């Protein structure tokens, strides 16, 4: 099987893809945002939620044949601590308790700990290419994998995967049409209709854990006012952004929490498109439309500048629609394209009035905490002056029961509505493309990459090709 990755589309795609194939995490995060077993088959809170007990699967071996043990997991976790990347800021100790049990002790409860174990790759020291995943690396250049005969869930049906990289997605798609590759890792929105019309390919759209917000710098003399931010939320027609800018390949957003998250409350209020209400709110806030005094200015209530990510055409289309909708209520927004590296530098320095970037949500609470909590911001690329969600985010880190989490998430939704730090615009939908020579287990709107080890060659397609 050949895999095509257009490097011009996703520069980090190659490394992420390789990790998905050759390494399994300690736990995974399922579609509803719950922690699910992987290398650890069971997690249990002890000692008043201050100790997390991990029980490892006993039938897991590394690609070199060595068994997965608690000592191997402890070694990896302790190395993270040495690298100043502990799984929790409240870590007290990590220790093995028998060959298949790991105890992570904390100084206080931390509900984000299990989620953070999702990013832990367990590999033997000095062997970065040896993992526990469904495929093992046999060549780095070109990148080639073969099936792991001893994979604990079941040997993959695909015997070999060869990864080809291309400067652009157009090059990857051309290779797929020539039959050189069977899988296209990313299908751009611009090419999606064309790809879907190709009879030799099946496309699989999925909801990505990324949203586009227009985030405000609350140090701005006008944007710091909560009534202004509420009005800006009311002025945006999110569905029109999905339809016009995204060709229908997205869904409206009402906040930073993963839409499928199990603890979300559907009873919480969300902002409806209501430009008349936005105008009334701004008038009441003492921000009337000021007539133009010369030909170089337009009639407006106020003006601000919004930086946006310039490296993908989608973001310019979104920016222009947002600009037009806010102009309809008398707010003049200068949309300024900025390359990614420069944009993140300015975010870290709070050198902006507003910005729009693709923002990860994850499928649980951790990414929301990291992005919006004040203490998580230094070095994380965000300085906004927003602190309203800190108390409830702190509370959510302390609770581990379902009932307490649901109540806390409902309160977080309320805070984000009453005191919005941003206009949450849309959620992104991406797509993969696979040759019809393969049968792919698929659930609507879910990413097929999670079950690549279950893909099979389509017998009918193989016979037809012969």
Helix/strand layout:
Elements: E1 2-6, H1 13-22, E2 27-29, E3 35-37, E4 40-46, E5 51-56, H2 70-82, E6 91-96, E7 101-106, H3 113-116, E8 135-140, E9 143-147, E10 160-166, H4 169-177, E11 183-184, H5 192-196, E12 201-216, H6 226-234, H7 238-245, E13 250-252, H8 275-284, E14 302-309, H9 313-327, E15 331-338, H10 340-348, E16 354-356, E17 359-360, H11 366-372, H12 390-398, H13 402-418, E18 422-435, E19 438-439, E20 456-457, H14 459-465
Parallel strand pairs: 1-10, 1-11, 14-15, 14-16
Antiparallel strand pairs: 2-3, 4-5, 5-7, 6-7, 8-9, 9-10, 11-18, 12-16, 12-17, 12-18, 13-18, 19-20
Helix pairs in contact: 6-8, 7-9, 12-13
What can you see in these coordinates?
This protein is an alpha+beta fold. The chain has 3 domains: 24-119, Dipeptide-binding Protein, domain 1 (Alpha-Beta Complex); 135-186 and 436-465, 3-Layer(aba) Sandwich (D-Maltodextrin-Binding Protein, domain 2), CATH 3.40.190.10; 208-428, Dipeptide-binding Protein, domain 3 (Roll). The protein has helices at 13-22, 70-82, 113-116, 169-177, 192-196, 226-234, 238-245, 275-284, 313-327, 340-348, 366-372, 390-398, 402-418, 459-465; strands at residues 2-6, 27-29, 35-37, 40-46, 51-56, 91-96, 101-106, 135-140, 143-147, 160-166, 183-184, 201-216, 250-252, 302-309, 331-338, 354-356, 359-360, 422-435, 438-439, 456-457. Strands 1, 8, 9, 10, 11, 12, 13, 14, 15, 16, 17 and 18 form a 12-stranded mixed beta sheet that branches. Strands 4-5-7-6 form a 4-stranded antiparallel beta sheet, with helices on one face. The chain is globular.
């Amino acid at each position: 099987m050949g895999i095509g990755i257009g490097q011009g589309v996703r520069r980090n795609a190659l490394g992420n893809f390789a990790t998905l194939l050759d390494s399994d995490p300690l736990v995974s995060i399922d579609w509803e945002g719950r922690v699910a077993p992987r290398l650890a088959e069971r997690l249990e809170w002890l000692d008043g939620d201050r100790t997390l007990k991990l029980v490892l699967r006993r039938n897991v071996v590394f690609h070199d044949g060595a068994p997965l043990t608690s000592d191997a997991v402890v070694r990896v976790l302790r190395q993270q601590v040495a690298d100043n990347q502990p799984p929790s800021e409240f870590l007290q100790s990590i220790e093995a308790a028998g060959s298949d049990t790991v105890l992570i002790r904390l100084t206080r409860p931390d509900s984000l700990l299990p989620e953070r174990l999702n990013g832990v790759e367990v590999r033997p020291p000095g062997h970065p290419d040896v993992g526990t995943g469904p495929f093992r690396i046999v060549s780095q250049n070109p990148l080639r994998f073969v099936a792991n005969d001893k994979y604990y869930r079941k040997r993959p049906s695909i015997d070999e995967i060869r990864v080809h990289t291309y400067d652009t997605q157009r090059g990857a798609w051309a290779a797929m049409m020539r039959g050189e590759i069977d899988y296209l890792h990313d299908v751009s929105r611009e090419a999606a209709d064309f790809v879907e019309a190709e009879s030799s390919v099946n496309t699989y759209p999925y909801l990505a854990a990324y949203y586009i917000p227009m985030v405000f710098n609350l140090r701005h003399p006008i944007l710091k006012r909560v009534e202004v931010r509420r009005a800006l939320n009311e002025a945006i027609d999110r569905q029109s952004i999905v339809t016009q800018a995204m060709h229908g390949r997205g869904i409206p957003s009402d906040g930073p929490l993963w839409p499928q998250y199990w603890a979300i409350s559907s009873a919480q209020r969300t902002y409806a498109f209501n430009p008349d209400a936005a105008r009334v709110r701004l008038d009441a806030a003492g921000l009337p439309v000021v007539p133009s005094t010369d030909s170089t200015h337009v009639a407006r209530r106020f003006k601000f500048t919004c930086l946006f990510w310039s490296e993908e055409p989608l973001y310019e289309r979104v920016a222009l629609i947002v600009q037009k909708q806010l102009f309809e209520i008398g707010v003049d927004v200068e949309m300024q394209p900025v390359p990614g590296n420069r944009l993140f530098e300015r975010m870290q320095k709070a050198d902006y009035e507003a910005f729009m970037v693709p923002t990860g949500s994850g499928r649980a609470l951790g990414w929301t905490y990291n992005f919006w909590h004040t203490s998580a911001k230094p070095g994380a690329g965000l300085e906004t002056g927003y602190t309203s969600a800190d108390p409830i985010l702190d509370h959510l880190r302390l609770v581990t029961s379902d009932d307490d989490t649901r109540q806390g998430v409902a309160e977080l939704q309320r805070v984000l509505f009453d005191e919005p730090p941003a206009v949450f615009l849309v959620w992104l939908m991406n797509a993969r493309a696979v040759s019809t020579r393969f049968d792919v287990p698929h659930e609507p709107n879910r990413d097929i990459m999670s079950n690549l080890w279950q893909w099979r060659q389509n017998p009918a397609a193989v016979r037809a090709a012969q």
